Amino acid sequence: MARNIIGVATGLAVWLTITLLAGLVMREMWPAYAGVADEMTFTLPMMIARLSIGAFATVTIGVVTACITQSTLARLIPGIILLIVFIPEHVMLWDTFPIWYHLWFLLSLVPLTYVGNSLTGISLSPSRERIEV
Q: Taking the model in full, what pTM does it have?
């Protein structure tokens, strides 16, 4: 049980670290992004960059969680937590972004977490056997 909690917490911490660092790098390296970030009036390439960072961070959360936890459910919990946290955020920002942006971000959280779980090669069965490829 403790290992599952540590795995979920570590995965969420990694997700937060990746997204915060990537956001800082984008503001520093992309002046146009920095100019519109506070107002959230992003161009299409900016939205795609943000979604790509989110996708990478979400796959990574799955990898990290799968490497630490033994429970199939615990491996998906970080994606579920992110979904629960971000639904109200995206409702508040509904008019700020196109609907496809909200749908892509929200509907990809749990599946991309699962993809990350699968990339580890660690079986989702309780026995934690390695999958031979």
A: 0.86
